[in-house]
Amino acid sequence: MNIKKKILTDENNEPIAVQIDYKDWLEYEKLLHLKSAKMADLSEFAGSIPLKMDPLEFQKKIRDEWN
Fold first, then answer.
1. Do residues 26 and 17 make contact, with C-beta atoms less than 8 angstroms apart?
2. 7, β-bridge pairs
3. Using CA atoms, how far apart are residues 55 and 3, in angstroms rounded to an integer?
4. Distance CA 26, CA 17 (A)
5. Contact in structure between 20 and 3 (CB atoms under 8 Å)
6. What are the pLDDT digits (tens) for 4-58?
7. For strand 15-19 and strand 6-9, is the pairing parallel, antiparallel, or unpaired?
8. In Å, what is the CA distance from 20 to each residue of 5, 34, 49, 51?
9. Residue 10: CA atoms inside 13 Å, Cβ hemisphere, count?
10. How far from each other are the two terminal CA atoms of the chain, in whole angstroms?
11. I want to staple 17 with a disulfide (CB 3.0 to 4.6 A). Which of 8, 26, 47, 53 is the partner?
């Protein structure tokens, strides 16, 4: 996909934002919504991985290891 864009920079010439035409944004937004709608239903995978620990407890345990 060829995206027509303008790169906005700060006083140090570092990129800080991207500007696109609104018409183009509407097209990209449609594509994003279609993709997320397809990815949203994960119910077919429920229970497909046997868990030995509550997922939230596992997440807390792993995050505690970061510090």
1. no
2. 18
3. 39
4. 18
5. yes
6. 899 999 999 999 999 999 999 898 888 887 766 666 677 888 878 888 888 899 9
7. antiparallel
8. 5, 20, 42, 45
9. 4
10. 41
11. 8
